[in-house]
Amino acid sequence: METKFQTSFIPKSPLSSGGGAIADLGVSPSRPKRAPSIMLDIAIFIFVVSIGAAGGMYAWKSYVLSQQDAYKKQLGERQNAFDPKLIEKLKKVNTKIDAASSLLSHHIALSNIFDVIGNLTIENVRFVSLDVSVPMDKTNDIKITLAGYGTSLKAIAFQSDVLADLSKLQLKNIVKNPILSDPSSNETGMIAFGFSATVNGDALLYSKTLSGTPVNDSILTASSTGSTNQ
User: Fold this and answer.
1) Contact criterion met (CB below 8 Å) for 176 and 182
2) Measured CA distances, 174 to 104, 142, 155 (Å)
3) Residues 37, 39, 43, 48, CA torsion sign
4) pTM of the model
5) Is-contact 201 143, C-beta < 8 A?
6) Exposed, middle or buried, 34 (CB in 10 Å: 0-12/13-18/19+)?
7) Which pLDDT value is given to residue 158?
8) Taking Cα atoms as reference points, which of 145, 81, 119 lies closest to residue 215?
9) Which domains, and CATH codes, for the chain?
10) pLDDT digits 0-9 by tens, 9-27
């Protein structure tokens, strides 16, 4: 007689929670691994960099302060190498020299006007009075007004011709707007007249007198300079 085996898919022992059935089969369960936190790594990196930067800034600040102290010490040593009182005295002397040089370079020797008048006056004419007017503005033009006498009307006419062509005397750019006025005869037979003109002050600078340059030469120099500028 054949023996019959009955199979059943229903387990005889109850399933335990948490994978009991798998444990019965001899297989141990594995836990899933956690992924590393990228944000945490970034935060740690930034923190480390910040600490390093703070340390670097502190070290640089200390270095700069030490260099400043060293420079101040060197500057003090170099200042002490000179005499401050002597330096201050030299500064005052230099200021006075500059002021004197400025005055001399712009000072006009009015006495040199007589040389200018002498160069344009003919033999038969003489002047008996002179009035000089120096402008207050920055121009160097000096107004002169004279009263004179001539031996005759012919002499006065010749003097007028000379004044009309001052380029022959190299005075065209020095004496400007020469005018003879009011000729009249007096009881002695002389012809009285008036004369006015403007003189370029550059020809009368006192610095040229100090340099030993004759007034006639300075007149020629000023005249040639004026011709060049034109």
Assistant:
1) no
2) 20, 10, 23
3) positive
4) 0.48
5) no
6) exposed
7) 93
8) 119
9) 110-229 (3.30.1360.100)
10) 455 555 454 444 444 445 4
